[in-house]
Amino acid sequence: MAIPSKVHEFMMEHGLRYDVLTHPHSRNSLDTAHLARIPAGSLAKSVVLEDDHGYLMAVLPSTQHVQLGILSKAMHRELRLASEPELSRLFIDCEAGAVPPLGAAYGMRMIVEENLADQEEIYFESGDHEKIFQMSRSDFMTMMEMENAQRMHFSGGQWHH
């Protein structure tokens, strides 16, 4: 599958610098990190949350999980995970589970885990399960600023293989 046009257009329109890495087909973010031979903590995953007021895209290291209680309280919302059918409808041009951290391109507000800024290089899904983007920390954080992503600490725990 090619990189979705919405993703490509957003990256080009904003003059973002990135490399595209190809890897064998992966099943989830930790699998992607392993197959792409990159540190799992450097792979940013997108988790789409929702409530009665709409959607929120949370971007965090693939080794972490969203602490819904902390995030709901901080955002003054009753957030829950968006369902798979909703994700398929929202990201019609992306493969399930390969959502890029480009909420603005899909009309949703974003929040980014501040500890992603600890990574020198940041990788993220391109919209399919065989390609990822690679960006420098400064370029990734610039992209998050362009998307008006709020930065805060909302993740916890370590996922293990």
TrEMBL record:
Source taxon at top rank: Bacteria
The YbaK/aminoacyl-tRNA synthetase-associated domain, residue ranges: 23-141
UniProt cross-references to CDD domains, sorted A to Z: YbaK_like (cd04332)
Pfam families cross-referenced by the UniProt entry: tRNA_edit
Protein name as it appears in the record: Aminoacyl-tRNA deacylase
Native species: Aromatoleum toluvorans
High-level lineage: Bacteria, Pseudomonadati, Pseudomonadota, Betaproteobacteria, Rhodocyclales
